[in-house]
Amino acid sequence: MFRLLLAFAAALVGSSAWAQPIVFPTDPVLQTRTGPAAELSATDAIILGVIEGLTEFLPVSSTGHLIIAKDQLRLTSNEPLFDVIGEPLWYRRATSEHGSQLLTMNLAADTYIVVIQFGAVFAVALVCWAQLRSMFFGLIGRDPAGRRLLINVLIAFLPAAIVGLLVHDWIDANLFSVGTVIFAQVAGALLMFYTEGWYGRRYLRGIRPETTELTPVAAAGIGLLQCVAIFPGTSRPMMAIVGGYFAGLDPRRAAEFSFLLGFVTLGAASAFKTYKSGAAMIQVFGWSHVLLGAAVAAIVAAVSVRFLVHFLLRHGLNFFAWYRLVLAGALVLHYYG
Fold first, then answer.
1. Cβ distance 152 to 213 under 8 Å?
2. Mean pLDDT of the chain
3. Does residue 326 belong to any structural domain of this protein?
4. pTM for this structure?
């Protein structure tokens, strides 16, 4: 396990460094002054890592919880940041498509809460190793069931990936707010109440889930629902599990498919964010606390995914729906009351 964590850390370091290498001053005096441009304490890193790992695969929205945590930890300043020699730090330099944008604590924190999702990806790789191995052998033509599973995961992944690339910047600029999270928490709760009621009525009529794997059409339907999950506070696993219910999967298989879809989706999103602005984030927070947050997220997520399967089998989605409503009410009282 320790060796795997080291390998994960090395991969994260390599991916960010490749994206945009940071050039440090060559003057010996200035070299002694290099370091993070802003403070992210070890406690903050652990808190964000725990929240990411705990909520990433539960149908409660990890992004929504991290937006709230970011606000409570005072990581939302939009004041421009400067390096140790007084030079401005750039989040994005001017191009033919975009204007320039200076780096702020808020932008760096937004990147941080996406990049530490690498920890959750690593946890799924450990917990769902058998399915991932089957998908790999399916890719090379040695496992027909694994090939079908791989095709379904890719079909479910593509719609949100395409839409996400198109609206990524707009969402970052306009929807990363507590108000958005409150609205999405309530809407998601209502959807889960409806889904659980629909599932329960069918169960009482003797209609049991008989599907053991999705059809490509059903996978495409889950993919369309994933597009809705781009809205912060909605929850990607919630939409995947709800889609699995309607496609005829039982709670266990719906949850497992959401894990595999999350492995691909989170891996792609984290890699994209790391490539785009990971190096700028490292200039703000430094390496150690980024790796700490991701490692904590990996450990907590590994426990969380096992908990979710057992909980869904016993209690269904209603508990998480009530939790979302309580959370939304608490946020309204705290921020608007």
1. yes
2. 84
3. yes
4. 0.81
